[in-house]
Amino acid sequence: MANNFDNQYRSRSDQRSKRRKTNLILNSLIVIVVVLIIVVASTIFYGGRNDEKNASAAKNKVSQHTKNNDKSTVTNNDNQDNTVTDESTTDDNKESNEEADDESQQGLESKDIVAEDSNVPNVKKSYTNPNWKSVGTEQTNGHQYSSDSNSIDWKEKEKALSYATGIPVDNMTIWYLSRNGSDNEVVGTITPKDQSKVYRVYLSWVDGQGWKPTKVLELKENDMR
Predict the structure, then answer these.
(1) Is the dihedral of CA 168, 221, 125, 224 positive or negative?
(2) What does the alpha-carbon distance between residue 105 and residue 90 come to, in Å, rounded to a whole number?
């Protein structure tokens, strides 16, 4: 009887032991599965974030590259515009220089000047130029002759004297300037400030166009009249 009780007790103990082992194995498996789920989920989650970061970084890189290309294009366009502007400025300066050269040749050095020796006492040479033009005028109500050195008419006569002889106004001394028979005809005697030359200049008025040189005499002596 005691042996049967012992056998039953051992059998129950063995069953309990088996249950504990089974539960332990199951719990371990559950823990392992949970850990695996966490690992997989973390991998998916962080992997997705990394992909987003990588995609964002790649997008930013492409965007920056595009901006750099745009800046480069703008810079190149600006340089081209500056080059065109510089070329245009150079052309303008060239034209201005050519005009200045033309102006400097409008005096007695012009290739169109006709110079003749003169038999008139005290006249060295006589100069004419078929291409002389009127110098323009600001007088809008007809010609108003004036001997006032501050008047428009006087300033325009100075311009015509300079145009005919090539002596700049600021380097010119006017010794005599007056009518030559009428308000539309004048004669003047001028020199450069160093008085190296003496010229007698004849001007005629052209309505609406201003004073026009008609003849220049180079005097032999300092005749300032």
Answers:
(1) positive
(2) 22
The residue with greater pLDDT, 213 or 221, is: 213
The token duo for 9 is: 């007790």
CA distance 106 to 19: 127
CA 80 – CA 76 distance, rounded (Å): 6
Pairing of strands 114-117, 172-182: unpaired
Distance of CA 35 to the CA centre of its chain: 72
- Tell me which amino acid residue 46 is: Y
d(C-alpha 52, C-alpha 44), whole Å: 12
Cβ neighbours for 194, distance < 8 A, ≥ 6 positions apart: none
**CB 186, CB 100: distance < 8 Å:** no
| Cα dihedral 164→168→170→174 (10° resolution) | -30
Helix then strand count (H, E) for the chain reads: 2, 6
Q: In what order do the strands lie in the sheet with 172-182?
A: 114-117, 123-128, 210-219, 199-206, 185-192, 172-182
* 35-54 residue pLDDT tens: 888 888 777 876 656 556 66
- Helix (H) or strand (E) run with residue 152 in it: helix 152-165
